[in-house]
Design brief:
GO biological process, one term: hydrogen peroxide catabolic process
Helix content: 25-40%
Radius of gyration: 25 Å
Bound molecules: NADPH dihydro-nicotinamide-adenine-dinucleotide phosphate
CATH architecture of one domain: Beta Barrel
Organism: Spinactinospora alkalitolerans
CATH superfamily of one domain: Catalase core domain
EC number: 1.11.1.6
Order of helices and strands: HEEEEHHHEEEHHEEHEHHHHH
CATH class of one domain: Mainly Beta
Keywords: Heme, Hydrogen peroxide, Iron, Metal-binding, Oxidoreductase, Peroxidase
Number of strands: 10
Cofactor: heme
Number of helices: 12
Distance between the termini: 82 Å
Length: 484
């Protein structure tokens, strides 16, 4: 006789009386309120969803491992970046603006959120597939996202409002340039780079400090969709990227990325030619070359998407000893907003869920709250004479630096070559090939040709791109039929 499969149960582990019949008064009679199995099933179903992320709602992810192959202990003492160290990780990819069911192939930046389960707690690097962002001050973030999402009246997305925001905020030009190249529609999540985007502070065992940027270079090679291919896939397979990642890992074709850094000596920041903390800027490689220090591979799919990916909570504030924040204003804003959204979306104890829970010991004095199941015992306060855990400030020697100034509301102080158009111009002039330039023009023209984009807005679009480069502006003007 073959062995029986396990009994189905309710959520309390009690064997289920039936998988298909509710309890009724006779076969044709009404159902009974006492049917706890039915009530639990229906009530739980009503509660299956948590609010979707306001941004980066649609995504997918997988687990893997990073290995560090070079000695960078002169820059950081962070445990996970020591030579030979292997650290388990989770990587979640996403689009930004679309809702949970939206198409993977839409033109959008892609989220590239890493959680490293280090021996000194979780280290999260919540980046994108671009090294830069649309804005440099978090006070603009909700306005920016509103402009990319839906109108209040008809709940439709609206390219006119997207261009309205972008053209009124010229610091967006660099990121919008990336977005309008074919890298705005990657072929898969595997065929794109990832970037930490922000500048971070690294400090070594002697407390010496360095500014650092992260670049994760795809070992699959860059591959993009043309605008036509991306549009077609939106209808043919809205889950194309989720499917691709899942299948490649299932088939043992594990995607990998090299881990590269740019390192700037701490003292260089003050009079570097660009503001090194401005998220709309890169550090040109001729100034700070990329150094490869390791690689990571994704090798395991989640078993339960909701538990392990939908409830995965990444937060740039998860920084381990040896790594600290920089004065990048966008990073400073995100230090607050990410944990805040997790508390709202998942609950006060989101860090106790298995996917978010560190693999190193948690000796926190935080207690209780909804769904607490991992809270530790006594003592419940610090300091104490009961032998409870004690902080070690020595671990953070090096994270601080001198700051002084008036309280102001202003843009960053300008550095010699700071402007909004110089770096996108460098992308156009020295990086893009002729065919990439032609596609960029076509992609912009296609986007700004949507019926809702007004004639006045088209003129502003041409002006915006002319500021990046006259040839680019000229191409866009021609495509939109605007006199330039
Ligand atoms: P470099 O020529 O040294 O670097 C150019 C970078 O652009 C390389 O990292 C290259 O790496 C990447 N790149 C190549 N093709 C494209 C493309 N179609 N779209 C986006 N990126 C591409 O020049 P600089 O460091 O002086 O930078 C010049 C401009 O290049 C910058 O203003 C910025 O727009 C762009 N860029 C710079 C990066 C940096 O960190 N310095 C990173 C990415 C882009 P790869 O082909 O492997 O992606």
């Amino acid at each position: 006789m073959s062995e029986r499969v396990p009994y189905s149960t309710d959520d309390a582990g009690i064997p289920a009386p039936s998988d298909g019949f509710s309890q009724s008064v006779g076969p044709n009679g009404p159902l009974l309120l006492q049917d706890h199995f039915l009530i639990q099933k229906m009530a739980h179903f009503n509660r299956e969803r948590v609010p979707e992320r306001v941004v980066h709602a649609k995504g997918g992810g997988a687990f893997g491992e990073m290995e560090i192959t070079e000695d960078v202990s002169q820059y950081t003492k962070a445990d996970l970046f020591q030579k030979g160290k292997k650290t388990p990780l989770l990587l979640r990819f996403s689009t930004v603006a679309g809702e949970l069911g939206s198409a993977d192939s839409a033109r959008d930046p892609r989220g590239f959120a890493l959680k490293f389960y280090t021996e000194q707690g979780n280290y999260d690097l919540v980046g994108n597939n671009t090294p830069i962002f649309f804005i440099r001050d978090p006070s603009k973030f909700s306005d920016f996202i509103h402009s990319q999402k839906r109108r209040a009246d008809n709940q439709l997305r609206d390219n006119n409002m997207q261009w309205d925001f972008w053209t009124l905020n010229p610091e967006s030009a660099h990121q919008v340039s990336f977005l309008m190249t074919d890298r705005g529609t990657p072929r898969t999540w595997r065929h794109q780079h990832g970037f930490g985007s922000h500048t971070f502070l690294w400090y070594n065992a002697n407390g010496e400090k360095f500014w650092v940027k992260y670049h994760f270079k795809t070992e699959q090679g860059i591959e993009n969709l043309t605008a036509g291919e991306a549009k077609a896939l939106e209808a043919e397979d809205p889950d194309v990227h989720r499917r691709d990642l899942w299948n490649s890992i299932k088939n043992g074709d594990f995607p990998s990325w090299t881990v590269n850094i740019q390192v700037m000596p701490f003292e260089d920041a003050a009079d570097y030619r660009f503001n090194p903390f401005d998220l709309t800027k890169v550090w040109p490689h001729e100034d700070y070359p990329e150094i490869t220090i390791g690689r990571f591979t994704l090798n395991r799919n989640p078993e339960n998407y909701f538990a392990e990916i939908e409830q995965a909570a990444f937060e740039p504030s998860n920084l381990v000893p040896g790594i600290a924040m920089s004065p990048d204003k966008m990073l400073q804003g995100r230090l607050f907003s990410y944990p805040d959204t997790h508390r709202y979306r998942i609950g006060a104890n989101y860090l106790q869920l298995p996917v978010n829970r560190p693999k190193s010991p948690v000796n926190s004095y935080n207690r209780d709250g909804a769904m607490a199941f991992y809270n530790g015992g006594d003592p419940v306060y610090a300091p104490n004479t009961a032998g409870g855990p004690v902080a070690d400030p020595e671990l953070f020697k090096g994270e601080g630096y001198h700051v002084a100034g008036e309280m102001v509301r202003s843009a960053y102080q300008l550095h010699k070559e700071d402007d909004d158009f110089g770096q996108p111009r460098a992308l156009w002039e020295k990086v893009l090939s002729d065919s990439e330039r032609a596609n960029m023009v076509d992609n912009i023209v296609g986007h700004a040709s949507a019926p809702e984009v007004t004639d006045d807005m088209k003129k502003r679009v041409v002006e915006y791109w002319t500021n990046v480069h006259p040839d680019l502006g000229g191409g866009v003007a021609k495509g939109l039929g605007v006199q330039s």
